Amino acid sequence: MSLSILMMNELTILIQCPDQVGLVTNITRVLAGQQLNIIAMREFVDEQHKTFFTRIACTGELAEPAKLKEKLLENLPNSAEVNLISQQEKNIAVLVTKEYHCLAEILIKNQFKTLGANVKCVIGNYEALKDFTEKLGIPYYYVSHEGKEKAQFESEIKEIIDQFEVDYIVLAKFMRILSADFVKDYEGKIVNIHHSFLPAFIGANPYKQAFERGVKIIGATAHFVTNNLDEGPIVTQHTTHVDHTFGVKEMVRSGKEIEKAVLLEALNLIFEDRVFVSGNKTIVFK
């Protein structure tokens, strides 16, 4: 459903602006004037940066979305950002390498319409997950990285992604470091699952490192991708306790379960427009 359509039953409003007295009153007055009924409203003030954030879920008939946005901006401080979002599913592309567990979780939910998004394509730099993906009716594109400069490899991926006009790119255990240029082209749209409770055990074989250190907690982190490797704004993190009885295989098994849970929780929050990015932090309205 497009915001240009004259009748709208559900609407999510996201507002980010400098904080000041009376913001909630001003916002609710404008919505009441448009005959919109607020069914949920969450707000947060970042005291350090004096910034106000709110997510509002409304119902009602809205004839002129542009007029509503104009009215809200008139009643908010300068530099306010207002987003009006109709209740539509997002479109995503999924990038993979060889590990199947996160992709499988995404595709099963997509198959049963519980993902909150539509998987438009899966792109992999190996063919290991091609048959599985295509059995579920999703196009799989194999783009090898071998014997190519990173710029060429990423250009071929971009060409595929841009065919589908996706809202987000999900790195479901895509074990390649993306260039600054690629990240810039999809700024704020790339979501990654990291196999560690950041920032510990960065790099290869995290569970082997954890086993050798005798850790008692392992975890995973879902975050937006930035130019700083594994340091983008964190959306969700989970941990689980382990002990001396856990070998590497048991840690890997537990870690994969956490990775799936963390990634799907983060995607659910993002697809429902519950996540604001502010600098290198997130505000998450659960």
Task: Describe the protein in words.
Helix content is about 30%, strand content about 30%. The model is unreliable at about 1-5 (pLDDT under 50). The radius of gyration is 21 Å and the shape is globular. It has a seven-stranded mixed β-sheet with strand order 7-6-5-8-9-10-11, sandwiched between helices. It has a four-stranded antiparallel β-sheet with strand order 2-3-1-4, with helices on one face. A two-stranded antiparallel ribbon has the order 12-13. Helix 3 packs parallel to helix 8 (about 250-270) and helix 7 (about 205-215) packs across helix 8 (about 250-270). The protein has about 290 residues and is α/β, with parallel strands linked by helices.
For this entry, give a set of tags.
single chain; 286 residues; alpha/beta; seven-stranded mixed β-sheet; four-stranded antiparallel β-sheet; 13 strands; 30% strand; disordered N terminus
Give a short summary of the structure.
This protein has 286 residues and is α/β, with parallel strands linked by helices. It is 32% helix and 30% strand. Strand 8 (168-171), helix 6 and strand 9 (190-194) form a beta-alpha-beta unit.
Proportion of beta-strand residues: 25-35%
Helix content: 25-40%
Radius of gyration: 21 Å
Got a strand count? 13
| Straight-line distance between termini | 24 Å
Q: What's the story with the biggest beta sheet?
A: 7 strands, mixed
Number of helices: 8
> Strand order across the biggest sheet?
7-6-5-8-9-10-11
Q: What is the helix/strand order? A: EHEEHEEHEHEHEHEHEEHEE
| Poorly predicted segments | 1-7
